[in-house]
Amino acid sequence: MSEIRGAGILRTRFRGFSGCTRERVARRNGTHARIHPSAVVDRSAELGHDVEVGPFCFVGPNVVLGDGVRLCSHVSIVSNTRVGSGTEVHAGAVLGDDPQDLAFDHTESWLEVGERCRIREGVTLHRGTGAGTVTRIGNDCFLMANSHVGHNARLGNGVILTNGTLIAGHVEIGDRAVLSGNCLVHQFTRIGRLAMMCGGSAVQKDVPPFCMTRSLSANSLIGINLIGLRRAGFTSEDIRAVKFAFDTMFRGRMATPTAVRTLREKSSHPLVVEFCDFVAASKRGVCRLFRESEIVADGRGVVDGGNGRERAA
Fold first, then answer.
1. What pLDDT sits at residue 293?
2. Which pLDDT score, from 0 to 100, does residue 30 have?
3. SS3 content of the chain, % helix, strand, coil (to 5)
């Protein structure tokens, strides 16, 4: 085995190698990492115990890979990125690249990925924009193929992003939220804990905790995430409290401040309090309830909001 150093890069070559992985001793702490000969690892990178770096991967400066991190082939971790133990990153993913922000001035910023995350093919996770800022992914997140998380976003624990979902800058997503395929989330929007966005939906307003958006629509809610709440172990009493909060907020036809005040007066259940606190803190407003009786003029006639059939104007 020989090491080649130059331009701040550490590359490891193995003589007589016949497998697809091999092992070398990590330089800093004596732990072992398996690095493919075609991979490029910066000398400043820190690799934990039992890390795997696959073919044609790039690990840039100021990168920290925790114990048991696995990089499949063609993964790029560009710079200033910390990846938690047990995380798995698949082919073509790019982590820690510059933010897509015209105002970015190349000051130092970071990406932090939690433990036991699964990051699938083609995912892009960008660093923060602004000196010392961080894009943060929680523990146990599952980011499916070609999803994107923009600068300064914060994802809680157990968040799922399905294929093609795009998260803009400064978005906040609560624990165990699920975003189905091809969802779009506008910058600075918040998605509450255990909320679910159905496939193809887009939001530029906040989605309260425990709520579900309507597929192929914008800023529309259809009810509570009942299956998600049951899977999370919510009791019947908990679910009744959430439904009471949802119905009061969205079916009572009250102004939002009035609905929040009414809920606080009528219930002290912790989930109702969480719901009210989220809505009250919203700066963008919250999504509204979709009503099938509503109709939308489309310039040719009138489209029924419930089934999309065109009717004569």
1. 64
2. 55
3. 15, 30, 55
Residue 65, token pair as written in the block: 């890979």
**CATH architecture for segment(s) 34-170:** 3 Solenoid (2.160)
Which residue(s) pair with 17 in the sheet?
Answer: none
pLDDT at 111: 99
H-run or E-run covering 277: helix 270-280
For 307, residues 6+ apart whose C-beta sits below 8 A from its C-beta are 292
Taking the chain (313 residues) in runs of 10, the rounded mean pLDDT of each run is 39 37 47 92 96 98 98 98 99 98 95 99 98 98 99 99 99 99 98 98 98 97 98 98 98 95 98 98 97 54 36 33
Residues 200-216, buried b or exposed e (16+ Cβ, 10 A)?
Answer: bbbbbbbbbbbbbbbbe
- Token pair 């800058």 is at which residue? 169
Domain ranges for the chain, please list them.
34-170
DSSP 159: -
Coil, helix or strand at residue 211 = strand
CA distances from 28 to 35, 45, 46, 238 (A): 15, 9, 7, 50
| Rounded Cα gap, residues 181 and 160, in angstroms | 10
List the one residue out of 139, 177, 172, 138 whose CA is nearest residue 161.
Answer: 177
Task: Supply angle C-alpha 234, 240, 246, rounded to 5.
Answer: 105
Cβ neighbors of 90 (< 8 A, separation 6 or more) are 72, 75, 119, 120, 121, 123
Can you give the pLDDT at residue 205?
98
Burial tier of 92 (Cβ tally within 10 Å: 0-12, 13-18, 19+): middle
Closest CA to 211 of 236, 179, 183, 185: 179
Distance CA 79, CA 135 (A): 13
Q: Which of 93, 109, 149 is nearest to 125 (CA)?
A: 149
